[in-house]
């Protein structure tokens, strides 16, 4: 009845009727108040805009169900859909209809999981429902699919609807996520759609998920009258629901001012301007914030502040968690430096050349030391080792001026200038091999300290030839031993200053422990029997002979120190042998490296993988991203961390 009425409506419209192919009702929700349709049209590209305009203005007449009973259609909307999910409307192959059960989880998974990979060229969907007056909470317990691609590939989409319409998509997932990553999503109504699209290129396990029904609520925000506290987006750290508006009206004691520090802030939506923030946003003091942001502070020059949060109908994210604090107007940061934003930092971090405040206020009006130089435009003081390092640290390139060689001369990595004609002439004119290390196709050359040496003894002049998917050595040795440095979980880490790592994110991380100290040092997996660590860890003291291998136990696959005996992912081994660098200096910490041999081999898993050890000739360019991981304290004398912690930095 409904499909017939819609078909007549289409055919009676001059801009729509000639292109109509078929339509079919696919679902009802909210007690049959909302009905969902698939409609197919065949239209030339030059008429697409005209069809879209006609569809946006379309009105559906009242439908007569039976004698004296009719249905009035209050609104009709049409949206584009995922073209890869468009198919024969009556083909229910790989379509599943699930309803939540009160008080328990309803589970489902990709076809074949966990015994087999999901089929190639899949087009699957799961229609999830809950009772009227409820919302759906969906959680992925396992998610291991093909690595994300710019176009195509395998992916899962989640919709706040029962049809795959673009304006109701909540997220699109691909790649692999560690178990600790919170893949939890909340619907705005009592329905949700999950779709799976795959190509025929690779095989992957797929996913396992479960969902619950929770009581529908729109409550969020509120009036807060405490001196300090914490608040966050609805259901944090799960993805916040679509179509939410929250307002926190915060007032601290009248003799104090108030500021809000956003600790974690994730309101990202693909292709959306983070300047105007037209979709999901937080608004404070008439300023909108969105996207992914490092911790920031918003202050009020009074005891009151209002924080507004808005989410639209599509693309939800983790949201934010924030802390509000009251402070003395005349002394907002006791014994600390007060940033212009209101953030407090240690006084030793002022005028150190680093933007610790986030707004550069800690680097303004500084007197440069003899170990610093002054940028031309900003007048900020920067470390002298930033000069002529190939990176525009000042923003106006003043730190990179007067660093160039004369015309027709080449600058070596060590700063020396040589005639351009001497580049790639099979002679080390620079003295550091840099004029012979980037000559396009790899060519045999004489062996020096700076050239890459193949296993057969041949040297080549290519820069960093190892594991670049090109066989440069005649014996192919530059492409062997390349199964290192790989993380089974491909999720891109969100690192802001320093964060807890996810389980399996750094699978070569090892915890070295003693009975006396517990966790004492870190190490990295190099092979099934070899670990790499720091030599200073194995220096004897009056209380313990740390050079004795029997003192140590290595824990691989460990993430949280509190679970080292309960997690099935953790593998424990005793140390058989310790070989510290013979020239290690406990004064300068030069040559601070040691090799450890395990008492028995380990097996690689998703949570245990080897790290890559670069060749001695490998060049790490200035500005290359580096990560520091471990369980140690973040500062001298600071509290030790129980979970693997990650700090992001740049190489200098």
TrEMBL record:
It is found in: Membrane. Keywords: Disulfide bond, Hydrolase, Membrane, Protease, Serine protease, Signal-anchor, Transmembrane, Transmembrane helix, Zymogen. GO terms for biological process: proteolysis. Residues 1-83 form the SEA domain. This is Suppressor of tumorigenicity 14 protein. One of its GO terms (molecular function) is serine-type endopeptidase activity. It is a single-pass type II membrane protein. Disulfide bonds join 339-357, 351-366, 388-403, 405-417, 412-430, 424-439, 447-459, 467-482. Residues 94-214, 220-327 form the CUB domain. The keyword Transmembrane applies. InterPro entries: CUB_dom, LDL_receptor-like_sf, LDLR_class-A_CS, LDrepeatLR_classA_rpt, Peptidase_S1_PA, Peptidase_S1_PA_chymotrypsin, SEA_dom, SEA_dom_sf. Its main location: membrane. Pfam families: CUB (PF00431), Ldl_recept_a (PF00057), Trypsin (PF00089). One of its GO terms (cellular component) is membrane. Residues 495-652 form the Peptidase S1 domain. The lineage of its organism: Eukaryota, Metazoa, Chordata, Craniata, Vertebrata. PROSITE patterns: CUB, LDLRA_1, LDLRA_2, SEA, TRYPSIN_DOM, TRYPSIN_HIS.
């Amino acid at each position: 009845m409904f499909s017939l009425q819609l078909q007549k409506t289409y055919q009676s419209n001059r801009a729509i009727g000639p292109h109509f192919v078929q339509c079919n009702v696919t679902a009802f929700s909210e007690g049959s108040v909302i009905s969902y349709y698939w409609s197919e049209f065949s239209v030339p590209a030059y008429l697409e805009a005209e069809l879209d305009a006609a569809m946006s203005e379309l009105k559906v007449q009242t439908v007569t169900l039976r004698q004296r009973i009719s249905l009035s259609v209050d609104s009709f909307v049409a949206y584009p859909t995922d073209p890869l999910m468009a198919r024969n409307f009556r083909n229910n192959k790989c379509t599943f209809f699930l309803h939540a059960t009160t008080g328990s989880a309803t589970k489902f998974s990709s076809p074949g999981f966990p015994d087999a990979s999901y089929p190639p060229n899949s087009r699957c969907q799961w229609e999830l429902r809950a009772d009227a007056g409820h919302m759906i909470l969906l959680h992925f317990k396992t998610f291991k699919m093909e690595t994300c691609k710019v176009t195509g590939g395998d992916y899962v989409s989640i919709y706040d609807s029962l049809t795959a319409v673009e304006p109701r998509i909540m997220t699109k997932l691909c790649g692999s996520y560690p178990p600790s990553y919170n893949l939890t999503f909340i619907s705005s109504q009592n329905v949700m759609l999950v779709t799976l699209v795959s190509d025929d290129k690779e095989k992957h396990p797929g996913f396992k998920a479960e969902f619950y029904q929770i009581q529908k609520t729109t409550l969020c925000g509120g009036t807060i009258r405490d001196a300090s506290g914490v608040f966050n987006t609805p259901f944090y750290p799960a993805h916040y629901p679509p179509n939410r508006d929250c307002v926190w009206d915060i007032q601290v004691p009248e003799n104090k001012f108030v500021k809000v520090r956003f600790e974690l802030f994730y309101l990202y939506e693909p292709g959306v301007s983070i300047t105007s923030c037209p979709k999901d946003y937080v608004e404070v003091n008439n300023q909108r914030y969105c996207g992914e942001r490092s911790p920031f502070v918003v202050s009020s020059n009074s005891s009151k502040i209002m924080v507004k949060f808005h989410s639209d109908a599509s693309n939800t994210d983790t949201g934010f968690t924030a802390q509000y604090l009251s402070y003395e107007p005349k002394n907002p940061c006791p014994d600390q430096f007060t940033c212009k934003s209101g953030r407090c930092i240690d006084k030793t971090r002022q005028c150190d050349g680093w933007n610790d405040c986030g707004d550069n206020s800690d680097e303004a009006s500084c007197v440069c030391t003899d170990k610093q130089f002054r940028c031309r435009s900003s007048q900020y003081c920067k470390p002298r080792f930033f000069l002529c390092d190939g990176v525009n640290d000042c923003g106006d390139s003043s730190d990179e001026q007067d660093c160039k060689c004369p015309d027709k001369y080449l600058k070596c990595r060590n700063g020396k200038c040589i005639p351009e004609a001497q580049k790639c002439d099979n002679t080390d004119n620079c003295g550091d091999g840099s004029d012979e290390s980037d000559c396009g196709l790899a060519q045999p050359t004489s062996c020096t300290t700076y050239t890459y040496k193949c296993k057969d003894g041949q040297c080549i002049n290519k820069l960093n030839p190892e594991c670049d998917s090109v066989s440069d050595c005649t014996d192919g040795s530059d492409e062997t031993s390349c199964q290192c440095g790989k993380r089974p979980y491909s999720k891109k880490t969100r690192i802001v200053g320093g964060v807890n790592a996810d389980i399996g994110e750094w699978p070569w991380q090892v915890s070295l422990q003693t009975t006396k100290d517990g966790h004492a040092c870190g190490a990295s997996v190099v092979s099934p029997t070899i670990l790499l660590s720091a030599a200073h860890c194995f220096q004897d003291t009056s209380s313990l002979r740390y050079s004795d291998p029997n003192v140590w136990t290595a824990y691989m696959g460990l993430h949280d120190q509190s679970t080292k005996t309960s997690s099935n992912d953790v593998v424990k081994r005793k140390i058989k042998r310790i070989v510290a660098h013979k020239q290690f200096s406990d004064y300068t910490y030069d040559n601070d490296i040691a090799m450890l041999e395990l008492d028995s081999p380990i097996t690689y898993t998703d949570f245990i993988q080897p790290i890559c050890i670069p060749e001695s000739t490998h060049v790490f360019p200035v500005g290359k991203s580096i990560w520091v991981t471990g369980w140690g304290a973040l500062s001298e004398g600071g509290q030790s961390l129980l979970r693997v912690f990650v700090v992001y930095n740049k190489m200098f």
